[in-house]
Amino acid sequence: MKKKITAFKTEAEERRFWQTHSSVDYIDWSDAQEVVLPKLKPSTKTISLRLPESMVDELKLLANKRDVPYQSLLKVFLSERIDMELRHAG
């Protein structure tokens, strides 16, 4: 028998609850089905980044060759490098 989930007054209260409790005690995951949310986009955060003008110019040149916006190409480059670093961190 699974534990009953109490009603929460706020989303913050529910968030705090799930940070300290396992859903396994409350939900029968054997009936769960995988869901794909194709239109869901990850949250983004705007940052200010100072780069040498020559680096921005080179990035724009590379992006133009690929026919993509330079900011998008920068995100691809950062993502690839972060993945590589994380794979080699262990």
Q: How is this structure best described in words?
A:
The protein is an all-alpha fold and 90 residues long. The protein has 3 helices and no strands. The longest helix is centred in the last third of the chain and has 18 residues, at 70-87. It is elongated and about 65 Å long. 0% of the residues are buried.
pLDDT under 50 segments (min length 5)? none
Total strand segments: 0
Alpha-carbon distance between the termini?
A: 40 Å
Q: Approximately how much helix is present in the residues? A: 40-55%
What is the molecular shape?
A: elongated
Number of domains: 2
Mean pLDDT across residues: 93
H-E order: HHH
Q: Assign the structural class, choosing from mainly alpha, mainly beta, alpha/beta, alpha+beta, or little secondary structure.
A: mainly alpha
What amount of the residues lies in strands?
under 5%
Number of helices: 3
Largest sheet geometry: none
Please state the CA-atom Rg, rounded to the nearest Å: 22 Å
